[in-house]
Design brief:
By secondary structure, the protein is α/β, with parallel strands linked by helices. The protein has 12 helices and 9 strands. α9 runs parallel beside α11.
Amino acid sequence: MGPLVSVLINNFNYGLFLSDAIDSALGQAYSNTEIIVVDDGSLDVSRDVIRGYGNRIISLFKPNGGQASAFNSAFAASKGEWILFLDSDDYFAPAKAETILSHAYQFGSAALIAHNLNYCDGENRPFATGNVSFEALKLVDDRKRARQGKLRINLPATSALALRRDILSQILPMPEEGTATQGRVLDQADNYIKIAALSLTPVLLIPERLATQRIHGENLYSRLGDKGETKLEWYLVRARIAFRLKERYPSLSKLVWKQYGRMLFQLSNSKSPGAKRILEQVRADFSPFEYSPVCCFYVCGAFFKSLLTSCMRVSGMQ
């Protein structure tokens, strides 16, 4: 029997889709798995759905604390050598765990594996998107580039990620902020995990489509859109993630400073009435800025590069 694989399912009010996620985890061709389902204070039928699976899964019921809190709780309860994340409105292909382990055996240096996704709507109707895709098997080591602030890999959604336990144990538990539903919506703990993991291990990109992401109009994160006050709140989320990453991983300072410089430009250039409020909150609570020549170089460089890009875009439109 091969190594134990843990599937971590985090759920908040996705009772309509939850059984598909759990069934896909239980239906893996690779049998040595444990399924851990964390319900993060759902108010719908989710907890009844979870209880219906009895001892076939490990059930954790907790008050609403956000995605980071759910990830931390699930990982603490797990024992697997490999950890597969699954959002409760998505589902796995039957060969997912088996395929991940096969590639992990061949590429022992990669403790992070990412794969392609299929997409469907709320009625399980498939559709194509222009999202991240990997055309061929590729091993990428971005650890040095991460320290230089030059990450080149855009990782897919959480349901397309697998991490080896020894690396994930260096990332989790992660900082938990925000309470109740609003805190969860503005959590984006997966970005923290992605950036931290890329700085700690090579990533193996594989072309197989081993999970389906459901885009149904009620997605907690994708539904937030890209307009108005919501977009401004995303800047606050990104600042918080960057701030916490720099706290825990000082080697990522250059990457964080560049992100901060771009964010300062975006907020300074925003015409939204709430931009000033968000900018002040970022500076007060989550600023990674240090009054050192190196910090000023990277923050100002990213700011002015963003300004130049914006001017060139405007000029090209005229």
